[in-house]
Fold this protein.
Amino acid sequence: MPSDVHVVRHEPLLGTVVDVRVIGSASAADLADRAVVTEVERLQRIFSAYDPGSELCRWRRGEQFTPSPELVEVLALALDWQRRSEGRFNPLAGELAALWRDAAAAGSPPDADRLAETARAIRTPRYEVGDGVATTTGDCTHLELNAVAKGYIVDRSLAVAWASVEVDALSVNAGGDLAHRGARPVKVGVENPLRPYDNEPPIAVVEVADAAVATSGSARRGVRIAGRWYPHVFDARSGQPVDAIASITVVAADATTADLLTTVAGTLPAAAAIDQLAGLGCTTALVVDRDGNHHEGTGWGSLVVR
């Protein structure tokens, strides 16, 4: 059977746009796409922070049930990365985000002392993981797993489809979190964070195979309060927004890791972010600072094709 490129777009899915790209026969591409979507929808029922009936929401409310292995695994990952990042990633940072949402609704910035107090309060984890069980030890109402779960869902849906259907190559891209498997690499463009227009050429194009790419930044999302713009990225250790970095793009072995790395390093100045990533074993990164300057990890250039 001839191998052609097939791209199917799903919108909305996972709260964003999901593209499934398959190199293979038309019939195999259809099967792979169905496998991806089925797994995404299954995992969404576990991790959705908006569906009151999701496992995550039930667990946050303290309901008594046996959580799925997937939820326990992601909760364990969140604890591990909170430790590894020295608090730059914190699953309880949703408490800080709630303060900023309330402030935006009220039309005035949040109280600095309350931000600092909340940042201190969330330093201590409020759940434990052991023997395949995750147990709350405190208030987890605002616990968020977005920085882990999205990449995890991309990885799992890709793995399920790759194992069940014979194709030459397969990639899943969920709102900029992309993971790839196969012998034929995929090219990924990096958007200009200072000119995020449809007709703007990418600032770089990288070629990846059996790897993942994630991009995050403060240039496009945020909130205006009392006439001042505040980026959506903030340091979980202080609760204060940070805007030294316009965007950060990371190539890693899987989308879960790539997503977490962009979160961890995204709160630092550009040069420090590159150093932080290198310390975590990632040299394939591009950081664009707020002035548009590019800062590259030592391994980034080996992936660039344009």
